[in-house]
UniProtKB/TrEMBL annotation:
Protein name: Adenylate kinase
NMP as annotated region, ranges: 30-59
GO molecular function ontology, one term from the record: AMP kinase activity
Family under the similarity heading: Belongs to the adenylate kinase family.
Compartmental location: Cytoplasm
Species: Streptomyces thermocoprophilus
Alphabetical UniProt keywords: ATP-binding, Cytoplasm, Kinase, Nucleotide biosynthesis, Nucleotide-binding, Transferase
E.C. code: 2.7.4.3
Enzyme class: transferase
Residue span(s) of domain Adenylate kinase active site lid: 127-163
Catalytic reaction list: AMP + ATP = 2 ADP
Chain sites annotated for binding ATP: 10-15, 127, 137-138, 200
Length: 222
């Protein structure tokens, strides 16, 4: 199982990626999570990426390609992975093709999460993320933690991402339409793209994701 999840911010990629990765026992590789870890750790890479993240712009392709190449050459992804947040530009899509060829692997499918803008703004407005390594995602209304402000899984502190402010969200949506939508067309032409309706509850979306992967019968367990 080697899948790419595409979709606008707030489409639910992170939540579904985590579920898929757990279900198939493969790593979840989120470029957004990897970048935020670097920013928090104050590394050179993190310092170079921070302004792009905060303003909702794409981090330069060369940085992303270097990170993804390192991860995809690691033995931990021998049996597959769920790639979340990359590729986000045509250049990254081409680079990923090269990296897959280098590693003698291929994508099983590319899932595009479709959701309208109003829903995105509503979801992101209430999104809370665990600051600890677990990175679990909650929503103040639709998926609240048992104890306000604390992660159900590890007790870590929940926070709102700085790029989840409304003006930055609008910028991220514009970047998606301009730079990432062409990536979906690239995969449609390659016959790999499956579009998933990302409206509804997380369990409903999980069932659709499994259906899109040809695993509809296994959908009862999210
Ligand atoms: P979301 O899908 O909600 O936008 P992510 O955590 O995937 O959130 O990404 C947050 C930010 O990280 C992006 O707005 C961008 O600045 C940066 N980023 C993540 N992945 C990439 C990528 N593949 N290319 C360029 N920038 C990226």
């Amino acid at each position: 199982m080697r899948v790419v999840l595409l979709g606008p911010p707030g489409a639910g990629k992170g939540t579904q990626a985590r579920r898929l990765a757990e279900r198939f026992g493969v790593p979840h590789l989120s470029t957004g999570d990897l970048l935020r870890e670097q920013v928090t750790a104050g590394t050179v890479l993190g310092r170079r990426a921070a302004d792009f993240l905060d303003s909702g712009r794409l981090v330069p392709d060369a940085l992303i390609t270097a990170i993804v190449r390192g991860r995809l050459h690691s033995s931990s992804v021998r049996d597959g992975c769920v790639l979340d947040g990359c590729p986000r530009s045509a250049v990254q899509a081409k680079a990923l093709e090269t990296i897959l060829a280098e590693t003698g692997t291929a994508l099983t499918a590319v899932l595009e999460f479709a959701v309208d803008e109003e829903e995105v703004v509503r979801r992101i407005g209430g999104r809370q993320v665990c600051r600890a390594d677990s990175g679990h995602i909650f929503h103040l209304r639709s998926a609240p933690p048992a104890v306000r402000g604390l992660c159900d899984h590890c007790g870590g502190e929940l926070y709102q991402r700085t790029d989840d402010r409304p003006d930055t969200v609008r910028q991220r949506l514009a970047v998606y339409a301009e730079q990432t939508a062409p990536v979906a067309r690239f995969y449609a032409e390659a016959g790999l793209l499956r579009t998933v309706d990302a409206a509804g509850t997380t369990d409903e979306v999980t069932r659709r994701v499994l259906g899109a992967l040809g695993l509809a019968g296994a959908g009862a367990r999210p």
